[in-house]
Each structure stands twice: as C-alpha cells, then as structure tokens.
Amino acid sequence: MSLIDANVQTLVLRMDERDRIDAERRAERARLEAEWREQQRAEHARLDAERAERYRLEVEQREEIRRERERREAESAKERERLEAERKHAEAESKKERERLEAESAKERERLEAERKQAEADSKKERERLEAEYKKADAEWRQTQAQWHQAELDERKERQRVEAELWAEHRRQSAERQQREVERQREAREQWVEYRRMEAERRAEVEKRLDERFDNMDRHYLEIKADMKDLKKTVIITAITASLATVFGVAAFNATLLSGMISSFESGKTTARAQGGKTLLPIPSLRPSTPD
Questions:
Q1: Keywords assigned by UniProt (predicted)?
Q2: Please, is 169 exposed, middle or buried when counting C-beta atoms within 10 Å of its C-beta (0-12, 13-18, 19+)?
Q3: Which of 110, 137, 93 minimizes the C-alpha distance to 249?
C-alpha cells in the first residue's frame, strides 16, 4: 500500500507540476499578447499621426500648386490678350498699308493706261502721216516714171522723125550720103550719150529723193519703235516695283505673326514644363487598419 500511495502521490505531484507549468505558460502567453497588443496600438497611433501629417502637407502642397497654376493662367491670359491686341493692331496696320498700296497701284495703272493710249494715238497719227508721205512719194515716183516714159516716147518719135528726114535726105542726096551718114552717126552718138547722161542724172536725182524719203521714213519708224520700247520698260518696271512692295509687306506681316506665335508657343512650353516638374503624392486613408 505504501508503494501505491507513493506512486499516486508522485502522480499527483507530477500532475500538479504540469498544471503549474501550464498556468505559468498561460500567464506568460497572456502577458506577451498584452505587450504585443500594446505595441500594435502604439504603432497604429504613430502611423495614423504620420498619415495625418502627410495629408496636411499634401493639402498644403496642392493648395500652393493651385494658387501657382491660377497665377500662371492669369498671366498667360493677360499675355494672350496682349498678343491678340498686337495681332489685331498689326492686321489693321497691314490692311491699311495694303489698301494704300492697292490705291497707289490702281492710280499708277490708270496713269500708265492713259499714257499707253496717248502713245498709241500718237503712234497712229505718226503712222498715218508716214503713210500719207509714202503715198505722196509713190505718186511722185509714178509721175516721174510717166514723165520718163513720155520723154522716151517723145525721144523715140523725134528719133523716128529725124531718121525719116535723114533717110529722105539720103535718098535725095545720094552724093553726100556717106558724109551725112557719118555726121548723123556722130551726132546720134553724141545725142545718145547726152540723153543717157541726162537720163542717168534724172534717175540719180529721183533715186536720191526716194532714198532720202525712205531714210526719213525708216528713221521715224525707229524713233517710234524706241519710244514704244521705253514705254514698255517703264510699265514693266512699275509693275515689278508694285509687286515687290506688296510681297515685302506680306513678308513683314507674316514675320510679325510668326514671332507672336513662337513667343506664345515658348510661353506655353515653359508653363507646361513648370507644371510637369511637380510631384503629386497619393492621399492616405485616415481609417486605421486592423491587425492581423
């Protein structure tokens, strides 16, 4: 009985020891769990404070960015309005200049047209005068030709009459025929030479007069042609000058518009680059997270 009691007592002691150890373990686990919960609560409180601080900083940063963006938008709007006013003013100035140039060009065209018509009228009058002179010279030449022909006919009739008389004299005076024939031939040769000389002089005189008249006609024609060339050059130079003035005015207007567009583009580019350099932070949640 003593051995059984001893075993029972030993078993009871072991069971008590095991219960004590289990109780200590449960107490230690409870203490550790309490410390862990306290640490988790403190960590959550610290994280919530950090999130609140980050949210406050982000709100301030967003407000600052909004104020900066509004200020830049206001400046950009003022700049756009100024550029628009300058563009409208430049367009008005260009329109006035273009209207002035068009009016001057129209006046110049009217003046050139009047000069051209006057030159055509003068040329027509000169041409009619030259044609009248040419017709007059042609009539004189025809009259001279008729006079030559009549002189040749008279000369031929005179020669025929003289030959008939000489032939009658030859038949009437056969004794003096040889001498008279020689005399007649000599006189005929002299008369023929004289006639040829006179005819050559008349022909030379008529040709000289005709050459002078044709030379005068050619000279007048060349003068008229030179005047027409000078008028054509004046018209072409005036038209080229007006065209160049118009082209330069349009080029200056385009350069002004291009400079305004480039300045606007550079301003917008600078604004976009300034806005693109900012970093936006995500807004954290203020709701505490539950521990696992």
A1: Membrane, Transmembrane, Transmembrane helix
A2: middle
A3: 93
Whether 246 is covered by a domain: the verdict is: yes
pLDDT of residue 271: 74
* pLDDT tens-digit map of 262-283: 777 777 777 766 665 444 444 4
| The pLDDT of residue 255 | 75
Q: What is the mean pLDDT of residues 148-163?
A: 84
Asked which of 45-59, 93-107, 129-143, 189-203 is least confident by mean pLDDT, the reply is 189-203
**Structural domain includes residue 284:** no
Give the total number of structural domains in the chain: 1
Query: CA-CA distance, 194 to 204, in Å (whole number)?
Result: 15
Establish if 282 belongs to a structural domain.
no
Q: Is residue 216 part of a domain?
A: yes
How far apart CA 113 and CA 238 sit, in angstroms, is 12
Convert 210-245 to b/e letters by CB count within 10 Å (16 or more is b): eeebeeeeeeeeeebeeeeeebeeebeeeeeebeee
